[in-house]
Amino acid sequence: MAHQEIPLSRPSITRMEEELVLRAMRSGRLSMGAMTEEFERLVAAEAGCRHGVAVSSGTCGLHLVLRGLGIGPGDEVITTPFSFVASANSILYVGAKPVFVDICPKSLNMDPSRVEAAIGPRTRAILAVEAFGNPMHMDAYASIAASREIPLIEDSCEALGTSFKGRRCGGFGRAGVFGFYANKQITTGEGGMIVTDDERLADACRSMRNQGRPASQGGHGTGSWLQHERLGYNYRLTEIAAAMGVAQMRRLPDLIEERRRVANAYVERLMAVPELVLPTVVEQASMSWFVFVVRLAAGFTRDERDRIIRGMRNHDVGSADYFPCIHLQAFYRERFGHKEGDFPIAESVAERTLALPFFVDLTQREIDLVCQTLEVMISRERLVRS
Q: What is the domain extent for residue 203?
């Protein structure tokens, strides 16, 4: 990939991360040690939950929660088609079927009325995603899940540090899962965290992440390393990654504030561009901002959006489409027979979304350059049309 002057994302790494990583490397304990325990404590506290279970990715976390809740073949889980594919893939990992429902065009999260209507005799859970970190409707999903006596699993992989109506994301459901890929609010390179108040579920996830060893082993306790009480996986997070996570969590308030600065600068700069729909954040939400994704106005086509993305990249400005609909990915089409038109709102949104460079070190000069380049590319499409 060619170097871009302004990349789509860039992690913020300081001397604190370097020092804690070195401390972990020199400790003689590179897995399941004190750094992992501290990282779990910090993330669980941020979500307002009693337990944190560190894993090697957010995808692994979703998989373990679904298994820990006993969801398997023949079961259905309601989820969104507008997300990164891992949210639906995790349902398939346990042999269950993802049942997609269309989204709200304002929040880009599932339409709560459609969630309720989709619940059937095989529904065993709702897996709700905070698209781009937007927490809108999480309280509604929690209410629906409670009234139907099924668990809400909160895919908060894009929402660390966000709250809605005074409740912290990750804490709305039976369990929440955060992701720490390099473009997230905090990063461990790769990594994830399950948060929950359910001690039995936490213990089951601790065991499964550690090859099915007893929870005391999964939670850093004592016992036989070769004793396995259930089917498990190697989903452990390394001490080196956890050390990065501890440093990043200590910096979380500053990281969130810088991400808000960048988001606000984009909003101020682009709010007068008629061809764009900017992210909608309701007053009850306090956003930590995962990415900054704009949407071309109705009437723009996918081809026009793709030309704008290519044009921006050709001018050394990172850009990408976020997200292609899951149900239209080749594997899901072939397995479930999904087709265009199944979820028209999600599809209409997906073909017009455009992610802009977004990271804490983005300067005002770079933001202006990104916006100017985007406006030029939009003007070019306008000229081509006429």
A: 15-102+110-250
CA-CA-CA-CA torsion sign (283, 258, 59, 21) = negative
Model pLDDT, residue 385: 84
**Is the Cβ–Cβ distance between 50 and 44 less than 8 Å?**
yes
Query: Which of 250, 272, 294 is where one domain is finished?
Result: 250
Do 369 and 265 share a structural domain?
yes
Average pLDDT of adjacent 10-residue blocks, the chain of 386 residues: 79 98 97 97 98 98 98 98 98 98 98 98 98 98 98 98 98 98 97 98 98 76 79 98 98 98 98 97 95 97 97 97 97 98 98 98 98 98 88
Residue in 68, 55, 42, 36 with CA at minimum distance from that of residue 200: 68
d(CA 171, CA 245): 20
Whether 6 is covered by a domain: the verdict is: no
- In this prediction the pTM is 0.96
In a domain, 8, yes or no: no
What pLDDT sits at residue 345? 98
Cis peptide bond N-terminal to 323, omega within 30: yes
**Residues 89 and 136 reside in one and the same domain:** yes
Q: How many domains does the chain have?
A: 2
Measured distance CA(43)–CA(53) in Å, rounded: 9
User: How many residues in total does the chain contain?
Assistant: 386
Q: Give the model's pLDDT for residue 96.
A: 98
Within 13 A of 256's CA, how many CA atoms are on the CB side?
Answer: 16
Q: Is residue 336 part of a domain?
A: yes
Residues 377 and 290 in one domain: yes
* Predicted local confidence at residue 289, as pLDDT: 97
What per-residue confidence (pLDDT) applies to 165? 97
User: Do 69 and 193 belong to one domain?
Assistant: yes
Residue 221 resides in a domain: yes
User: Which residue matches tokens 């979304």?
Assistant: 353
Cite the DSSP H helix spans in 94-157: 112-118, 138-148
CA nearest neighbour of 350 among 89, 184, 131: 131
Strands 152-155 and 167-168 turn out to be unpaired
